[in-house]
Specification:
195 residues; alpha/beta; three-stranded antiparallel sheet; 8 strands
Length: 195
Amino acid sequence: MATQSTQPAGRTVLDARDISRALSRIAHEILERNKGPQDLVILGIPTGGVPLARRIAERIASVESVDVPVGSLDVTMYRDDLRMRPARALLPTDIPPDGIDDKVVVLVDDVLYSGRTIRAALDAMNDVGRPRAVRLAVLVDRGHRDLPIRADFVGKNLPTSVAETVTVRLAEIEGEDEVLITDRAATNSTGEDLG
């Protein structure tokens, strides 16, 4: 009897080593732009952004010997497509104890697409504090923006067609690291980035 694989079919565009190098580069760029780790707070956007935020913070700690506060920011209730997709689980927002007021917040997400998730994150952040500055780090920027939002730190610019889906698989969630491009017609919506 044949068993069906749960791994999505598609073309691998980043493997584990590529992802590791990209995150190391992002960590160094964050430090360079901020002139060190002072006043940094890193917030991951669930789900993929959270483990990526932790990895970036670990790399910063290994370079600077300073632990940068890491947390998560759930944007579910701030999304503009909530009424079109009402069945969503709320994920925990975990703001570091010192908060984000007057800090340099680096939002981390796995894929930047339309920009709507980041707009929702900016709205959600207004409810938890007032940072001095907000920066955006993404593993993949696939283009096709609906809103005037750009990433400050990008692991890989990946030109795609709107008929394609970018799927980021991370060891903390799926057991392995890779980024895949698949034809949207050949996949379901579970792996698709929404924003």
